[in-house]
Amino acid sequence: DGGITQSPKYLFRKEGQNVTLSCEQNLNHDAMYWYRQDPGQGLRLIYYSQIVNDFQKGDIAEGYSVSREKKESFPLTVTSAQKNPTAFYLCASGTDSNQPQHFGDGTRLSIL
Amino acid sequence: RKEVEQDPGPFNVPEGATVAFNCTYSNSASQSFFWYRQDCRKEPKLLMSVYSSGNEDGRFTAQLNRASQYISLLIRDSKLSDSATYLCVVGAWDGGFKTIFGAGTRLFVKA
User: Residue A98: its chain B contacts at CB < 8 A?
Assistant: First the structure.
């Protein structure tokens, strides 16, 4: 069954801690994306990758880091530099930038 | 001006009603257009792509007006299950390809 898997579904971060959100896809998509959604707000792009070993900053990259070592995987690290990390994080993938994106079911991150 | 603008609503309609949402975009070089649906506390799901000639999928009709830079979504015979937030999404070249999500329009369909 093809799709995008995000884990964990819920994550709690202590102050000063880095946490990593997992995103795996078996759709053979080249492009992958990370978005943040705050309550009642639209999606904001954190990072995107159009090909393995390459990624670009989105609109709100500060305090986040990513890697793209494999086509299937695009993990997002929320670093301690991100002072307001509580949000709904969504990973998406697509065949290319001009095609619709397909989303994982998200990770909710909260501060302890 | 926001790159993609939608009326946040909420739209409250009775079952069986027809409801229409508009979305305006600022970049005249925009190339791809989509409508997504997002249920509360869930991920967005693609509802339909929007083509230049307009397209229909069952009760849903999408249209694109490039001259006025807006896209629309029409829902006929609304069902309770149509209650959700509808996101307008626009793709354009802007020093690299960008996909911009609107903040969404909230729809409540009541019995």
Answer: 31-32, 91, 97
